[in-house]
C-alpha cells in the first residue's frame, strides 16, 4: 500500500508546506511525497506518477496549479481507473460538489484544514482488506472480480461516511458532503523539517499561527475566524534549527504575523538574540498595529535579518471600507518611513487593482501614495475573486466580472474598464522592470522628478514600450538600460548625457561588468591613470582596506573605477563589500587619479 502526496509548485525554488504537514502528521511510512512545478511538461509528470504506482493519489490544489492538476487527473484516471484520487487545498475546498461533477475521476475532496482528515483517510485505506489488490483488479472482467471490487469499495464508503472534512463520491455515484472539521491545535502539527538537503536552493516556509483576526473581503483567511498560535517554546526550538542549519530564508506564512503582540515580540526577540548572520526571516505584517516596543526592537536588528510584507491594497477610504479592512494609511506611512530610516529592513508594499470604488484615477492616487514611501518592492497585483470569499458573494453588486479559470483575475468592474486593466498591466510590467528589479534606483529617483506623478511616468513608459514593440521581446539587462535611455532622449533630449551617467552609475552599482555596455558610451578613465591608481592602492590601501590579501591586478578585477563628468568625480565601485539589504556595491569618491 502506497499513498502519494503530490505538490505542483509555481517555481522550483518554492516548496509546499501543506503536503509536508500532512505527511508528518499522518506519521505513516507508506505515505510518500513528491513535488513538481507548473513549468514541467504534463506528460513528464504523468509518466513519473504512473511509474510510482501509488494505490491512493492526493493532490494539493491552489489557483496557480489547478488547471495543471485537472489535466493530470483526467489522464491518470484513464491509466489507473481503480485508483482513488483525492484533492485538497483552498482551490477545491469551497466548491467541492462542483469539483466532483467536473472531475468524475476524483473520489473526494478534503475541505479546509487537512492534517487530521488526511490521517483518517490513510487509516481507512490501510484497514480495508485487500485494498491494494482492488486497485489492480478494478475494471477487470468477470463476476468474481466485480463482486470483489464492489465489496471493497463499499467497505471504504461506509468508513468515509464518518470522516468530517470531506465531500466524496459513493460507489453508486451519489455525492456525500460531510460536515467541516473543527480546527485543530496548531502545536499538534509536527515540525516538518529534518533533512535540510532536500530544501537546498528552496525557500523554506514556516507557520507559527493559522487564521486571521481581520475580515478582508478578497481573502479566504476571513472565512475562518479561529485564530490559533503555535506554542512558543516549540517555535523557538524550530527557529533555532533553521539558524543552526544556516537556512538562507525562512518565509512565515502567518496571514498577519503581528496580530498578537506578545507572540510577535517573543519571536523577533529570539531571532535577534540568536542570529548568526545568515538566515533572513520574512513576515507579513499590518504596519499600523506595530507598536513602539516592536519598532525599538527592529532598530537593533542586523541588516537583512528580517523583511516585511505590508498589504496596503488601496488608500481610497471608500475602498478600504468596502473590503472590510481597518487601516489608517497615515499611520502606515509613518511606520514605513520610520522603518526605512532604520536602513536595515527590506519592505515590500502591496496594491490591488480592481477593488470596489477604485477607478483609474483613484488607483493612480493609491499608486502615488505608496510610491512616495519608496519601499524596496511595490507589488501591483490584480484582484482575484476566490471561491468562498465575501468578494465572490458580492460580485454582482460591484459589477465585478472575472476570468472563469484560475487565478480568477478581474476583467472589469463598475469602476474599472477592461481598457483600464490593460493599461495597468503595462504599468505593472514597467514597475517590475524599472523599480522592483532595484537595478535603476538612482535613475528612476531622478526621472520621477520630471513628472507630476510616478503613475504618469510609468504609464508613459509603458506606452513607449508598446509603440516601439518592446513589450513582446525578452531583453537582456543592458538592453533595458539602453531602452530607458532611448525613452529619455525622446522626452528630455537636453538631459540625455546627464541620464546616461545616472544609468551607468546604476549599472555598475550592481554588476562588475567584464565588457562595457554600449549605452554607457566611451570609457573616460585613461589606462595610465587606472594603472597608477591600483599601484598606489596596493601600497596604501586607502580606499580598499579590506583587500589586504590581494595585489593590484586582483583589486582591479574585483572593483570598477568610473569618471562622471556631470559631477567631475571618480567613483570606485567595490563589489566585495556589498550592502546586505540590496546587494549594491560599496562606493567611494576617489579624490585624485
Question: Can you put this structure into words, describing what you see?
Answer:
The structure is a single chain. Helices cover 42% and strands 17% of the residues. The chain is of the alpha/beta class and 593 residues long. The strands form 5 sheets. The chain has a 7-stranded mixed β-sheet, sandwiched between helices. The longest helix is centred in the C-terminal third of the chain and has 19 residues, at 418-436. It is globular and about 95 Å long. The model has no long low-confidence stretch (mean pLDDT 93).
Tally of helical runs: 22
**How would you state the average pLDDT, rounded?**
93
Envelope shape: globular
Unreliable stretches covering 5 or more consecutive residues:
none
Please state how the strands of the largest beta sheet are arranged side by side.
Answer: 2-1-3-4-5-6-7
Largest sheet: 7 strands, mixed
What is the percentage of strand-forming residues?
A: 15-25%
CA radius of gyration: 28 Å
The assigned structural class equals alpha/beta
Helicity, in percent?
A: 40-55%
Distance between the termini: 75 Å
Question: How many E-type strands?
Answer: 20
Amino acid at each position: 500500500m502506497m499513498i502519494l502526496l503530490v505538490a505542483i509548485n509555481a517555481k522550483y525554488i518554492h516548496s509546499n508546506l501543506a503536503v509536508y504537514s500532512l505527511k508528518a502528521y499522518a506519521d505513516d511510512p507508506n505515505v510518500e511525497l513528491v513535488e513538481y512545478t507548473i513549468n514541467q511538461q504534463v506528460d513528464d509528470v504523468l509518466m513519473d506518477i504512473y511509474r510510482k504506482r501509488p494505490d491512493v493519489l492526493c493532490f494539493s490544489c491552489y489557483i496557480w496549479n489547478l488547471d495543471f492538476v485537472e489535466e493530470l487527473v483526467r489522464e491518470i484516471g484513464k491509466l489507473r481507473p481503480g485508483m482513488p484520487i483525492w484533492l485538497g487545498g483552498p482551490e477545491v475546498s469551497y466548491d467541492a460538489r462542483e469539483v466532483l461533477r467536473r472531475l468524475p475521476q476524483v473520489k473526494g475532496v478534503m475541505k479546509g484544514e487537512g492534517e487530521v482528515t488526511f490521517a483518517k483517510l490513510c487509516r481507512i485505506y490501510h484497514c480495508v482488506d485487500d485494498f491494494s489488490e482492488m486497485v489492480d483488479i478494478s475494471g477487470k472482467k468477470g463476476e468474481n472480480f466485480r463482486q470483489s471490487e464492489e465489496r471493497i469499495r463499499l467497505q471504504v464508503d461506509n468508513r468515509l461516511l464518518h470522516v468530517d472534512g470531506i465531500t466524496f463520491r459513493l460507489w453508486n455515484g451519489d455525492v456525500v458532503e460531510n460536515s467541516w472539521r473543527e480546527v485543530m491545535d496548531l502545536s499538534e502539527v509536527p515540525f516538518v523539517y529534518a533533512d535540510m538537503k532536500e530544501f537546498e536552493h528552496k525557500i523554506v516556509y514556516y507557520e507559527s499561527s493559522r487564521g486571521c483576526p481581520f475580515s478582508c473581503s478578497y481573502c479566504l483567511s476571513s472565512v475562518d475566524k479561529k485564530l490559533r498560535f503555535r506554542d512558543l517554546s516549540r517555535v523557538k526550538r524550530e527557529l533555532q534549527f533553521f539558524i543552526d542549519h544556516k537556512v538562507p530564508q525562512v518565509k512565515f506564512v502567518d496571514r498577519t504575523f503581528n496580530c498578537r503582540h506578545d507572540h510577535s515580540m517573543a519571536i523577533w526577540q529570539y531571532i535577534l538574540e540568536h542570529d548568526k548572520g545568515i538566515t533572513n526571516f520574512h513576515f507579513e505584517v499590518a504596519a499600523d498595529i506595530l507598536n513602539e516596543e516592536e519598532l525599538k526592537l527592529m532598530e537593533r536588528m542586523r541588516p537583512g535579518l528580517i523583511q516585511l510584507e505590508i498589504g496596503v491594497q488601496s488608500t481610497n477610504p471608500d475602498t478600504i471600507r468596502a473590503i472590510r479592512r481597518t487601516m489608517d494609511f497615515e499611520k502606515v506611512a509613518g511606520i514605513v518611513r520610520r522603518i526605512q530610516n532604520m536602513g536595515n529592513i527590506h519592505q515590500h508594499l502591496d496594491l490591488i487593482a480592481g477593488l470596489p470604488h477604485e477607478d483609474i484615477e483613484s488607483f493612480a492616487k493609491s499608486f502615488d501614495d505608496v510610491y512616495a514611501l519608496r519601499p524596496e518592492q511595490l507589488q501591483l497585483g490584480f484582484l482575484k475573486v476566490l471561491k468562498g470569499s465575501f468578494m465572490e458573494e458580492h460580485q454582482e453588486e460591484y459589477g465585478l466580472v472575472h476570468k472563469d479559470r484560475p487565478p480568477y483575475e478581474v476583467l472589469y468592474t463598475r469602476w474599472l474598464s477592461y481598457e483600464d486593466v490593460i493599461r495597468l498591466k503595462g504599468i505593472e510590467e514597467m514597475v517590475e522592470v524599472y523599480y522592483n528589479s532595484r537595478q535603476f534606483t538612482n535613475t528612476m529617483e531622478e526621472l520621477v522628478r520630471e513628472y507630476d506623478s510616478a503613475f504618469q511616468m510609468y504609464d508613459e513608459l509603458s506606452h513607449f514600450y508598446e509603440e516601439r514593440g518592446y513589450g513582446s521581446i525578452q531583453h537582456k539587462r543592458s538592453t533595458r538600460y539602453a531602452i530607458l535611455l532611448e525613452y529619455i532622449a525622446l522626452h528630455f533630449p537636453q538631459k540625455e548625457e546627464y541620464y546616461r551617467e545616472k544609468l551607468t552609475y546604476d549599472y555598475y552599482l550592481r554588476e562588475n561588468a567584464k565588457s562595457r555596455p554600449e549605452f554607457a558610451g566611451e570609457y573616460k578613465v585613461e589606462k595610465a591613470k587606472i594603472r597608477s591608481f591600483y599601484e598606489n592602492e596596493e601600497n596604501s590601501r586607502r580606499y580598499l582596506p579590506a583587500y589586504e590579501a590581494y595585489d593590484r591586478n586582483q583589486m582591479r578585477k574585483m572593483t570598477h573605477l568610473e569618471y562622471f563628468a556631470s559631477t567631475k568625480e571618480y567613483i570606485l565601485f567595490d563589489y566585495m563589500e556589498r550592502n546586505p539589504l540590496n546587494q549594491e556595491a560599496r562606493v567611494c569618491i576617489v579624490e585624485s587619479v
